[in-house]
Amino acid sequence: WVTVLRSAGAHDTYLRTYRGVLDAGRVVEFMLLDRLFPRSVFYSLRLAERHLDELHNRPHDRVGATGEAQRLLGRARSELEFLQPGLLLDSLEDRLAGLQRSCREIGEALALEYFHAAPWVAWTDAGHAVSVIEEGEI
After folding, report:
1. CB 12 within 8 A of CB 19
2. Per-residue pLDDT tens digits for 81-125
3. To the nearest 5 percent, what fractions of the chain are helix, strand and coil?
4. pTM: predicted TM-score of the whole model, two decimal places
5. Which of 46, 83, 107, 117 has minimal CB crowding within 10 Å?
6. Using the 8-state DSSP alphabet, how is residue 134 labeled?
């Protein structure tokens, strides 16, 4: 768990927060749910929501999420926010896979909303539809 904390630049902050007690449940709680640590998942999702509100030019809108990306971000954040902290280690792999899936869906929604295109291109039959002019044909 020390390696996880160090890879996220969280080791010192974790030690100060939990007074040096290294515990798997607390590490997962810190990395997923901490509201003050800028590299926690919850903090990042909340920040992304704020920035998306600013992009929509509606930081204080009275209506909730109007775009698909906003809705997906809000759902991912609220699922994390209302988890029981003591149960974080239960099915952690599934929870992280779900977060990864949510991030992919959010990225796709943002790509469609702001770039008006699919977020990826699948190349098929490249070069077969174009005739190539050989030397001496012109």
Report:
1. no
2. 998 867 888 889 999 999 999 999 999 999 888 887 655 666 666
3. 55, 0, 45
4. 0.75
5. 117
6. P
